[in-house]
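Researcher: Next sequence.
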Amino acid sequence: MNHKNIWRAFIVAALGICALVACKKDKGNYNYSSVNTITVITDTVNANRSQIITVDSISVKQFDTLTVNIQLSQTQASENLSYQWMIIQTAQNLANPFQYIVGTSKQLKARIDVPISVYRLVVKVTDNATGVSFYKFYALNVDSSPWGGEGWVVLQDQPSNGGCDIALIASRDGTAGSGAIYSNLYSFGNNGKKLPTGTSKVNVLDYSASLRIQKVSFFYPNGGLQVRSTDFADSSYSSGWFFSEPATINLQANACSSQYEYLINNNQLHYRAVNSTSIKTPPILFNAPLLGSWTLAPFVLNPAGSLSDYWFMLYDQANKCFLQYNAQTGALVGVTTDVPNGHFAAYSKGTAPLDPLTGSGFDLNYIGKTLLYAENSQPQSGNPVTYSCVFRNTTSDSTWLYQLSVGGFAATNANITGRYLLSGTKVPGINTAKLFAFPTFLTLPGKFYYVNGNTINTCTIATLATSTSLVGYTFPTGTIIKTMKVFKSGYATAPSTDSRVLVVATDETATGGGNKVYFLSLTSTGDINNTPIAVYGGFDKIVDVAFKKGLGL
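Model: Next structure:
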C-alpha cells in the first residue's frame, strides 16, 4: 500500500470514530415526532352575530368593540400558546392601518378605531414549544357608526368643559322609530379634545356623490377646521387651506356645489375644485381670493345639483348690487372689467317695474339694500333655481323679499316681477327678524318662516305690499329661538318629507325647559302643524344645527 492510500484510510477511520462519538453524545436529545398542527375555528355559538357574519367574514361599526371568540383543533394538546390579532391592508399597494396589533389573547376584544374601509383581520397562533405559527384570515368590513350616517349635527357651547362639542340626532325628519342622540362626538373622535371656545357655525359639505367624500366644517374666532363626516376626527385646519393664507381669517360661509367647494372669508370668495382628477394629488388648496370693487355678503346663490355648479351669483354689500362669477373660467360673467353697479347689462324694461310703490321688478345693478339672508325656494337639482333674498334698508325700518332665478347662464337684467315689500304692519316683527327659512315644495311666490320673539311666524307672499303673516308656532314665554332650518336632504331622490319639516333649536332655560330641538311638520299648504313630530332635550347651549345626509347618496 502506498503512502497516499494509507493516509486516505486513516482519515476515513478517524471520521467514522468522530461520528460514533457524536451520535452517542446526542443520543436521546432529538424528538422525531410530528409538529403540533393547529387549526383555528371561529366560535359562532358564543358570538355577536351582528359582527360575525360568517366564519370568515366580520363587520363592525367604527369605534365599536369587536369581540371574536375562536376554538382550536390541535394534533397534540398544548396550552403553551401565544396569540396575536392584527388588522392589515387588503391589497399590496395599500398601507397598513395605524391600528395594527389589536389583541394578544385568545379572545379578541378591542375597540376598532381605523377609518371606514375593508381590511383583513388576522389571528396568529404560535406553539411556543416549537416556535411554529398558524394563521386564520377574516374579511373585515369597518362601517360607519350610527353617528357617521345621516342626522342633524347639533353644535353646543360647553364653557365648563373648556370649549364646544357636537351631538347628532340620528333622524332626518323626527319620524317615529328614529332619533337616537349621540353626544360629545367631536371629543370622542379626537381623544377628549373640545372644539375651540367660541365655535359659532357648523357646515356640511357634500361633494359629488360619486367621490363618496363628505366633510363637516366649523368656524371659530380667527380660524376654522374640517373633520371627517364619519367619525368627526380632525381632517384639516384653516391654516392649511390656502395657497397663501389671508392676513385676516374671518370665516363666514363654506359649502360645496358638487365639485366646487367655496369659502367666503372676510367678505372675499375663495374656491377649489374637488373632483376625480384633483383628488389624486392632494392637498387641494383654496385659490387666491376673488378681488374687486365688492365687499361680498356671506351667501352664494348657486344651482348646486345641476351641470352648472360653477356659476356663482354673489352680492356686493358695499355697492348694493349683484355680480356673477364663473369658477370654471375664473372670470366675471357678462363683463370684461369690474365696474361697480355695472356687472350686468343696463335694465331695459323701463321705469314702471322699478317703481317703489307700484312696481315689482328689480335692477341687478342697483338693489340699494343690505342682504340679510338668501336661500333656495326651489330644489337645487333644477336649472334655473329660484333663490329668495331678504333685504333691509340702512335705517332698518323696511324689509323686502326678492326672488331671483339663478342658473348656468349669464343672468339677464330684465326682472319685472319678484320684488315684494314686507310691511311691518301686515308682517309683524319682520323689520327686526334675524332668522328666516324657506321651503321648496310650494308654488312660487309661496311662503316663508321668520322668528318674532318666542314665535315662528308664517308669511304668505303676495304682490306689492300685500304679504301677510300669522303666528305659526308659539314656544313658552321667555324662549330664545337659536336657529331654524327647513329639512333639505340633498339626496338625488328626495324623501317624501324633504322640505316639509322645520327644525328649530331653542333655549328654554329661563323657564326650566333646558335646550331643545323641535321637529315641526309642514302641511301641504306650507303651514306649521301645532303638534311637533318630535322634541329632543338634554343639550347644552345650542349654537347651530345642520343636516348631514348619508355619505355618497
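Model: The chain has a mean pLDDT of 90. The helical segments are 3-25, 185-189.
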